[in-house]
Amino acid sequence: MKHPDLYRGEEVVVLGLAKSGVQVAKVLHERGAVVTVNDKKEREQSPEASELETLGISVICGGHPEGLIHPGIKLVVKNPGIPYSVPPVQKALELGIEVVTEVEVAYRLCAAPMIGITGSNGKTTTTTWVGQMLDAAGMKPIVAGNIGTPLCQAAQEATEGNWMVVELSSFQLKGTESFRPKIGCLLNVAETHLDYHGDMKDYVDSKAKIFANQLDSDTAVLNWDDPVCRELVPYVKAELLPFSMTEELVQGVFVSPSYVPDVEDDLERVILYRNSAGQEIEIAPVESISLLGRFNVGNALAASAIAIAAGADPAGLSAVLKSFRGVEHRLEYVADKNGAAYYNNSKATNSKATMMALTSLRRPVVLIAGGLDRGSDYLELLPVLSGRVKGLVALGETKDKLVNVAKLAGLNAVVSVDNGESAAAVLEQAVREASALAEEGDIVLLSPACASWDMFTSYEERGRIFKEAVHNL
């Protein structure tokens, strides 16, 4: 452990009783900190409280009491989703108390080198893929964070012989100070989470923290095809290892021959790695990649670059590129019903993710979309709706906006599902409506382009209900 006694005897407040909050409270308590956990939910909604109190950790539920934050507090660790505008966070900042997320605490306690992976889309797929690549190479990865083991738990179990492979959101990165991954990766940047960040500058600045503390002995992996990623290059101090689908790189991982954006062809392509000496090593044919979609070629390039930066043999990555079966809720095949194929892409919580999924499919699509309204007009979906979608079933807070865009795109088969007795009933009705529109050879795709929180507790719940509804057709 890097700094085992860092918080011994210090007062620490943990805001939020979610999984990460519970784990960070346990770890800090074990390290000798005096921990208080606070959650605005009532006690009966907080079953984790009793477990923490049994350990001797103070838990306060039902609001944020006066005096919770005071000058004697050393550190505040907040759940990533808690906005900075809440009173205890504001009070801590006014008093000059450090406010961080679990990522920062885990980094300070972790002996293993860290790989941090962030981006608007593709994080989970890329993180999982990297874990499998390093495992195949005998490099003892621990996949943690938003997927896998809770980060603080993994951090205290990791040794110098492991690699910590961590998926990171903008919410988590915003709350870091000294966090320095040995390898940092930025996959892409799309307009999303502006209800939390306020504007794109804060969102991009939060993502860019993946590189902020790196040194020239570290590695920065970024998407050379993404203009926002490219704009960060002058500020990156680490060794740069880019990846690209549209350009042959002087050094990095790329596709040859390059893709032409928005143009489909049947050329045979390979993934190549070119090192600093100009030597080229073939990694794998693109057609051998197990996952659908050009965007997953990008994820494969990123995962390969990260694995190479960690020391994996480039020529040894092809087996995992071929065998990887993907991640639940990411363009996940569900079943064939009456000649139509059903896919679950519930993780598509923004328009760009839905556009990427649609451009990956070569058959007519009946799209199920809609969810939490974050202020977008969804007009960016126009080109893909008019070119690839034969029908739309809209639901959730954004259904009227999506119906409007579908009609602008010239779609005649457009159905809006009204709110029902329950969120599950609404989605089940949407599946039935989509099934009625689908013909043999079509694809029915759940790809909401929206977050799930208007109707569901998570995109995972939404995806599971969709799959159950498909199987019940």
TrEMBL record:
It is found in: Cytoplasm. ATP binds at G119, S120, N121, G122, K123, T124, T125. Transmembrane segments: none annotated. It comes from the Bacteria. It catalyses: UDP-N-acetyl-alpha-D-muramoyl-L-alanine + D-glutamate + ATP = UDP-N-acetyl-alpha-D-muramoyl-L-alanyl-D-glutamate + ADP + phosphate + H(+). Pathway: Cell wall biogenesis; peptidoglycan biosynthesis. Keywords: ATP-binding, Cell cycle, Cell division, Cell shape, Cell wall biogenesis/degradation, Cytoplasm, Ligase, Nucleotide-binding, Peptidoglycan synthesis. One of its GO terms (cellular component) is cytoplasm. GO terms for biological process: cell division; cell wall organization; peptidoglycan biosynthetic process; regulation of cell shape. Residues 117-307 form the Mur ligase central domain. Its main location: cytoplasm. Residues 329-450 form the Mur ligase C-terminal domain. It holds the Pfam family Mur_ligase_M. InterPro entries: Mur-like_cat_sf, Mur_ligase_C, Mur_ligase_C_dom_sf, Mur_ligase_cen, MurD. One of its GO terms (molecular function) is UDP-N-acetylmuramoylalanine-D-glutamate ligase activity. Its EC number is 6.3.2.9. Belongs to the MurCDEF family. Cell wall formation. Catalyzes the addition of glutamate to the nucleotide precursor UDP-N-acetylmuramoyl-L-alanine (UMA). This is UDP-N-acetylmuramoylalanine--D-glutamate ligase. The gene is murD.
